[in-house]
Each structure stands twice: as structure tokens, then as C-alpha cells.
Target: DGTPase
Amino acid sequence: MRTDRQYTETEEEYRSAFRRDRDRITYAPEFRRLKDVTQIAHVGESYLYHDRLTHSLKVAQVGESIAELLRQEYAHQQIERELDTQVVIAACYAHDIGHPPFGHVAERELNRLLQEEHTPNELGFEGNAQTFRILTRLANHREEGFGLNLTRATLNATIKYPWARSEKPNKDKWGYYKSEKEAFEFAREGSNRTEKQSLEAQIMEYADDVTYAVHDIDDFYRSGLIPLDRLLVEAEQNYRVDEETSNIEQYLREEGKEEIADNVRRVLNDINSNYARDPLKCPYTNSEEQRIAIAQFDSNLISDFINGSEGTEPPIIIDLTDDEFDLERDDNVEETIQVLKHITRYYVLSNPSLNAQRHGQRRIIRVVFNALYEESGKPGISAIPEPYRDRLQENLKVATETQNARVVADMITSMTEKQVSAMYKRLQGHSPGSLVDEIVR
Model:
């Protein structure tokens, strides 16, 4: 059953099993940590940008809206068999929990360290697999080692990549480590979707894509990194001057993304005609008019990604194949999302200041990992704090480098960006701190 848990519990009368899942994630410290973790910019600039907690809350809002819409539109097909709104919200809350401080740059560095340097036979690090590990093993609820003991449906809804790395060694993404294979099999039991997401996971992923695409444009236009005003003016003037637009198209073609490049002008024309008010066609100054205009831009674009614009078909529909429901995305909406994402990549990810920050962030992760890994083999006093010291002591009974490296990765992933930076300074002797200042609590 969808409401089954891996470890039996007594359910409550006044809260559904799925609502309890949502509440457990909300109260987990791993969820609260996300307020000090960012996607691109470092957390010291989080007053300008969405942190991962704010992002997750907004993903959940979008996911809830999609789920409610689909439950109404497809009630006659008994879609509630595979779609519960509380499951979608819980999955949206959980989807970023396993991502380390500094985002993808740290994820890639941890993968390199785990796979290449310390445990060559291990299967690396991946943020989505780490999310599943936290939910099923590391997070504390009632019993040590049981994780949050979520229902089968909610666990399945968090799995964006339903395979192990060993099954698809050429893929950059995977859904679980071999240490969580039993929990993965429990989550997937009863599903005929071999290597396919559940419907609720598909909704979570779509809500994630929509939210990032829109809010990254919002964030980086406000900060001056994305010249949204110039792009809109070029579209409005029918590209008589097209310097910015041409640069984006050239970048995409050099990256081998011809199809996305071909859609840039159509997307910019659509945004200029239907979503961008005149205040957005000027550099951002934080004026009242621009604050209202950008809020309406976000709201209207997201609304149309869910409901469709007036006179058009809904952008998301359900396909019922082999008695299972699947989400189908409208091609134009998918193209718009991809263009918005790549505009952010062009203007932000190629920024020299950001890349200098990322160089330093990789060093922080590398130094902290190596230092803690060296400490992990010591049987007595070490620099490893609780509860990770207890976990390492358990590992000493079997003494495997792989398990020690995994625990060190768990520890780093549990930190905020401020914590891992403070740990780096302490380990390097730059800022020893106080004896009573425990960085990891």
C-alpha cells in the first residue's frame, strides 16, 4: 500500500499518513538548514537571492497548485489512486535536503573525492541520492538509523532518478547509494515504472524547474547580473539592435544547444508581449513600479506554466498509459523554461567573480573533507564531533575506508555554508574559535 512505512508504526486518527510525512520533513533540522544554503551565490548574499529553504517552500506552493488542478481535472479517471497533494508537498519540501553547502560545485568536488581519491571502488556522491539517504537513514525521528520512516508513496515521490549509479555508470545523476538499496526497493515496491518517476515525483520535478527558471531571472535581474531590460528592449524593437540576444544565441550554439538557441527570440518576444511591463525595460533600481512589475512577472508566468494562458490548452496534461498516470509538458512551456535557465547560465555562471568564489569553495570542501577523513581513522580523540564520532566508532569494528569516507561526506552535507567555512578556518588555523564553540551541533 502507498501508506505503508518501512518500519511499522501506529498511525493517528486526526492526521493522514501523508500529512504526517509532510510534518516530519518540516520539523527536521535538515530542512531548516536549507535557509543557509544557496544554489548559485554564496549565503552571505542571501538577502539578494533565494536560499534553498525559500526555494523549497515556493516549489511546494507550485507543486500543491498543480496537484490540486490535476485532481480536479482528472477526478473522473480516479487519479487520486496515484496523486495525493500532501505527498507532492512533502516531496517538494524534501527535494533539496541532500544538497551540500555551496551547491553543485561542492557536489562535484565531493563526488570526485569519494570516487577518485579515497574510495575508488565506491560510487561517488550525488545530491539526490544523499537526499534519499538522509530521509531513510540519517535523519532522526524515533529510532536511530530509521530516518524519518516516511510512507512508500512519499519516498517514491522524492526519487527523481530511480536507478543506482552502477546501473547507469554513464549518467551524472542517480537516486540512491548501495547502502540504501533496501529502502529504495521498499519505496518502489508495487510500481511497474521501471526507471520512471512516479506521477508525484514528476509533479515535484516540474514545480522545481518552473520555480528555478522564474526566480533566477528575478534574482539576477534585481542584482544587475542579467540585463533583462536590454533583452526586452531588443525584442520590443524587433532586434534592430540585438547584441545581447545574439550573444546568448552564439553561446548556446557553441555549447551544442542549437534547438534552445533557435527558441530564444520566440521566448523573448512572448515575454515582452505578455509578461513584461514597461518598468522592467529599464535597469533595476528597486523603485516601487519595478517591484510591482517583477512580482507580477513572476506570478503571471508561473500561473501560465500551471494553468495555461487565456485561450490556450493547459500546459500540463495527464497521459494514462498501462493504467498509470504520467505528466506531459507542453512543448512551448518546456522551451520557455529551458531558455530562461540558459539565460541565467550565460550571464551568471560565466561571471568571473562567481567563478573565483567557486574556486575557493572547492578548496574549502577539499581541505575539510581531507582533514576530517584523516581524523576518521583515529580510534580515540579526534576532531570529529558527535553524532558522527559514534558512527565512525561503529565503522571501526569493520574498519572500511568506504564507510568512513561516506560518514565524512554526511557530516559536510549536514553543514550550512557558514559552518563549513568556519570549520575550514579552524582546521587551517586561520580562526581557531572558542573551546565552547561547537561548529556542528
Q: What stands out?
A: The chain has a mean pLDDT of 87. The two ends are 37 Å apart (CA to CA). The chain is about 55% helix and 5% strand. Residues 17-199 form a domain with the Hypothetical protein af1432 fold (CATH 1.10.3210.10).
